[in-house]
């Protein structure tokens, strides 16, 4: 995908396959607002300015298990550096569905700790619904986080909202979030709710 028209076509394709706006945002690594804008542009609804967002396509990594392993190894090394700075360790790695899960699985394996999976609230987001109705949930098929220090793994931070709700969910579930690690940070943040954020790539705007 090289331009906004390609993005609109992809958003339409994903919607026709039954994905909600929040899931489309996750698939395209864009904000919910951008996903909604793309879909409204597809319906020729004009007058709404484009959101300030950056499209990220890391499918060349995602399609290769060996590349995923190498990137996840880099993320594990980055997490280890932060844990040393904080003089702590982790008991579980929490993968944010969908794209954070394969990365988190590799990081958890390398650390020899449990794997937990979070389904973010944005996956239930549909146009016309209030965001407050959507809540993140921990998958019952993976580890719980009660009494565990957790490293959160995701692919991209766009607004920081998913990281924030994941940290709150871990805390409400009796665990402790100690670090958030992503491939790309589009927002350029140092921490979320006092939890350090580390990224392999940080995107910054000029002007």
UniProtKB/TrEMBL annotation:
InterPro entries found in the cross-reference section: GfcR-like, PRTase-like, PRTase_dom
Keyword set, alphabetical order: DNA-binding, Glycosyltransferase, Transcription, Transcription regulation, Transferase
Transmembrane segments: none
Pfam families the UniProt entry points to: Pribosyltran
Segments forming domain Phosphoribosyltransferase: 58-191
Keyword Glycosyltransferase on entry: yes
GO molecular function: DNA binding; orotate phosphoribosyltransferase activity
Gene3D superfamilies xref list: 3.40.50.2020
UniProt superkingdom: Archaea
Free-text comment about domains: Contains an N-terminal DNA-binding winged helix-turn-helix domain and a C-terminal regulatory domain (or effector binding domain) resembling phosphoribosyltransferase (PRT) domain.
UniProt family annotation: Belongs to the purine/pyrimidine phosphoribosyltransferase family. GfcR subfamily.
Protein name as it appears in the record: Transcriptional regulator GfcR
